[in-house]
Amino acid sequence: MTNVPPTPSSLRGAVDLSSLVDRAQRPQTAPATTGAGTPAPTGAGQPDGVLSVPSLVMDVTDQSFQDVVQLSTVVPVIVDIWAEWCGPCKQLSPVLERLTEEYAGRLVLAKVDADTNPQLVQAFQAQSIPTVAAVIGGRPLGLFVGALPEAEVRDVFEQVLQAAEQNGVAGRVQVDGAADVPEGAEQGEPEPEPLPPHHQAAYDAIERGDYAAAIAEYRTAILQDPHDQMAVAGLAQVSLLDRLSGRTADEIRAAAGADQRDVAAQLAVADLDISGGHVEDAFGRLLDLVPTVFGEDREALRVRLVEYFELIGSEDPRVVAARRRLANALY
Fold this sequence. Notes:
The chain contains 14 helices and seven strands. The chain is an alpha/beta fold. The protein starts with 7 loop residues before the first helix and ends with a helix.
């Protein structure tokens, strides 16, 4: 994470799946109940399709964050990781809250107290605070660290909304009891276009933990349109979750440490690195192996790296460098 506001393309490269990976590694349980003022968006929405929430600014905890993940399939969620003792937090939080209200239901703000929610601090890799991130369609994205001027924060919000729209997340929420159309919103604004059928089916499958079904839906979408980049990225994302499902991080790292030349074990720990946002570690691990193996093992490394490139985004400088290194090793 940096203090430089990201572009929509770089947002895609900041994917941190650790919270979803944790869920994939746990047995499926009943949906979390609403807590700390957090909405449970799986319920019925308003008659006009606008989801009702208790507030546009909400406090969330380690226990209630799953509700935020669900809400992020409707609107992007800005995550503010702060602490009472943090001076810059006291400068930034009012700016985030004011802008959230100004956007009138196009996004919401989830506030996380770093002192009482260590799991979320770890999931977002918040090494210092304030740390600001977003969740779009269940995918956490790093934004910036530290207090920024209001104009720069507004630019980041705009880029988040652009990235959300590109990923089919363009809904709206309203506060309980508010008018159906938020003040300042345009009358007669068209409803956002629904996701393509196979994309929607894939999202639904991911929500219920059926990664195999989601993979099948994305593959069908790609067969129908080989240029469907959202489907390609979605397939890479859910394939990663599927491979990590049912195994703990300790098990994966222990197997990789036991045999540095075990390609399957190194592929698994690279998946773990990618899921936690350690992109360069994952690339380096696999690229170091490529010159040392041949045949099926080398092809497996190549295929996995190409999948990571799709997941992170071709414009990311880490991908550009890794792609060049892979080509040199292969040819």
